Amino acid sequence: MRNKFLISAICLVVITAVVGCASFSEGKTDIVASENSNDDELTVKTDWNQMASITFSEDALTIDGSGCSNEDGIIYITEGGAYTLQGTSSSSSVVVNTDENVKLILNGVDLQSVDGPVIYGAQVKNLYIELADGSINTLTDSNEYATDSSTGEEIGKGVISCEDDIIIIGEGTLNINGNHKHGISSDDKLYVESGNINVVTEGTDGFSANDLICIDGGTIVIEAVSDVMESDGVLQINGGELTAKSNDEGLEAKDSIYINGGIIDISVLDDGLNATNYIEINDGDLSITCETGDGIDCNGGVDGCITINGGNIYVQGGKEPEGGIDADNSSVIINGGEVIAIGAVNSPISEESGQVSIVYGSFDADQSITITDENGNQVFEYTPAISGSTMIISSNTFEIGKTYKIISGDNEISVTAETTVVEAGGSAQGMGGHDGPGGQLQKPDGDLPFVDMPDDFAPGQMNPEQRPQGPIDDMENQYKDN
Prior knowledge:
Blueprint: E1 4-6, E2 13-14, E3 41-43, E4 50-56, E5 61-65, E6 68-71, E7 74-77, E8 81-89, E9 93-97, E10 102-112, E11 119-123, E12 126-131, E13 136-140, E14 158-162, E15 165-170, E16 173-178, E17 182-186, E18 189-192, E19 196-201, E20 207-209, E21 212-215, E22 219-224, E23 229-231, E24 234-237, E25 241-246, E26 251-253, E27 256-259, E28 263-268, E29 273-275, E30 278-281, E31 285-290, E32 296-298, E33 306-308, E34 312-316, E35 325-326, E36 333-334, E37 338-343, E38 357-360, E39 369-372, E40 378-382, E41 390-394, E42 403-408, E43 411-416, E44 421-424, E45 478-479
Parallel strand pairs: 2-45, 4-8, 7-9, 8-10, 9-11, 10-12, 10-13, 11-14, 12-15, 13-16, 14-17, 15-18, 16-19, 17-20, 18-21, 19-22, 20-23, 21-24, 22-25, 23-26, 24-27, 25-28, 26-29, 27-30, 28-31, 29-32, 30-33, 31-34, 32-35, 33-36, 34-37, 38-44
Antiparallel strand pairs: 1-3, 4-5, 6-7, 37-41, 38-41, 39-40, 39-42, 42-43
């Protein structure tokens, strides 16, 4: 079977044992493969030599094969190839140290470490974690980590920790219990193609990577003390299903975030999506609830640093000065998708947007908001669970030049969409901040509240001339030898 990742051209990554690479043209960073896309498919390595089968137990540890050794319950892997892990131990871990590719097949293993990560890639070309079909696997790190005698630094950064790329595949289940640091951490790039992954961290982030986090599929549930996922570079979600809670932020990238698909349902204390340079949403179902922060927050500092081209998006931010969508001192571009953004304040919507957005004023909890067109047909209905001062409603059902009636309780107003931004008692001009608790966003059951969606509606990419310039286009190519 050939497993494939679609990855943004912005990342320019060729991972080891993977054929093909993403190409790059200045000023254009297509994310989703399309007729205008320059992306190639990256294929995961499948030709493996089976090296050894390792069976753990509380009393003994057996190795059937070669390429590894046992030293007091620690398995040291020093040759490339595939290794199958099974059994149970409360005092074992795995250390990988080779310049070749290694695949660890988790086939019903329950391991707990006593001095750091359960799986540690000290050196490896690429570390593959395969979850055997139907298997349930549980990994738990220790409360304290061993330190390097020469540097004094702790060895490892999470339950699964690797100095190089991590690639997770397979259809089994992986339970991660993080007592000290991250759930899964890569000093380079972290890819998830498939699997049922459940992460609980008492330490820091659920997922962490220095260069890239790319989620292509799988069902992921994360409860994190710190961020749900944090990348020092790019964070990209192409598919899969993510349900998460955090006492800090949701999805954070020190560079940019791209959402191209999948189902994302997160409830966090601080910001839901947070990026330094750029956030682009092209597709997917997003429900984001923030207690004190912004639902979608970007500090790019240019108009369009938050761009929405498609997807079904429900966002609720905290009370003033927080909001649903915060582009700092810049405007948001909405070219497509169905958007409901609730917050005390929201950033302005650019009139360069490709579809109409209505900025509605004060609303009450449990009070239905209905919008009808000139013929009296209902095109929108939503009942918020909290009261608020600003709601952004955007849909391609709204048309330039048409008049709409907005009804909420005894309040009724009519507005005409003269431009792509319609102020209906509300003003989107917030700058964001850190203050005040919020409520819970009520996500409507079933389909979106918009009706009569055109069958041929397909939101496209942001035009190259609209995309902000700067650090995104200056990223250096990152290559690894096959």
